[in-house]
């Protein structure tokens, strides 16, 4: 190897090192791309979401007609609705309205079916924080265990349907799921462990 080739190799190596350092130093003076969430956001993240963002589903039970259009429209069966007649009043009551958010793909078909053919009781919110300790806590139960909601009779004039504030129903269901489901999960796990330890 000649001396000129050797010096050219050193020069080339030095140039590539300085080019890499130039890129690195140029980023030292730029604004950071990532943000320490949620501590250092300039505005609440909910306010920075796109206008048509689809967050967690919520159900306003006081205007739910229990028509099950949303349950039929869901392509992955993440909505479960049960109804039964009240033994005294003989009125149809909603005894279960669960949405498994862990399976939901946020397609919006259920909300469209409800808005077009019923009351618009199910809809997307801007809620998005779903970090939980157990996956069971992502089953939002809009009818608390042991409670019942009367089926809402849809008026012919849809302008007479009362509309509530969008958002609190999803938050309440999430808080209830976080509070109740882990305890249920622990009890089921203890039962399973106890059954497994019993002699056969």
3D architecture notes:
This protein is an alpha+beta fold and 200 residues long. It has a domain at 56-180: Alpha-Beta Plaits, CATH 3.30.70. The chain has helices spanning 3-28, 45-48, 69-73, 109-117, 168-197; strands at 57-59, 79-85, 92-100, 122-124, 139-141, 149-150. Strands 2, 3, 5 and 6 form a 4-stranded antiparallel beta sheet that branches. The chain has a two-stranded antiparallel ribbon with strand order 1-4. Residues 196-200 have low confidence and may be disordered.
What layout of secondary structure does this protein have?
Elements: H1 3-28, H2 45-48, E1 57-59, H3 69-73, E2 79-85, E3 92-100, H4 109-117, E4 122-124, E5 139-141, E6 149-150, H5 168-197
Short structural description:
The protein has 200 residues and is α+β, with helices and mostly antiparallel strands. It is 37% helix and 14% strand.
The helix/strand series, from N terminus to C terminus, equals: HHEHEEHEEEH
The structure class reads alpha+beta
Which fold name fills CATH's third level, the topology of the domain at 56-180? Alpha-Beta Plaits
Helix content: 25-40%
The termini sit apart by: 81 Å
Radius of gyration: 27 Å
The second-level CATH architecture of the domain at 56-180 is: 2-Layer Sandwich
**What oligomerization state is this entry in?**
single chain
**How many strands, what sense, and barrel or not for the largest sheet?**
4 strands, antiparallel
The proportion of strand residues reads 5-15%
**Total number of beta strands:** 6
Number of separate helices:
5
Keywords:
200 residues; alpha+beta; Alpha-Beta Plaits; 4-stranded antiparallel sheet; two-stranded antiparallel sheet; 5 helices; 37% helix
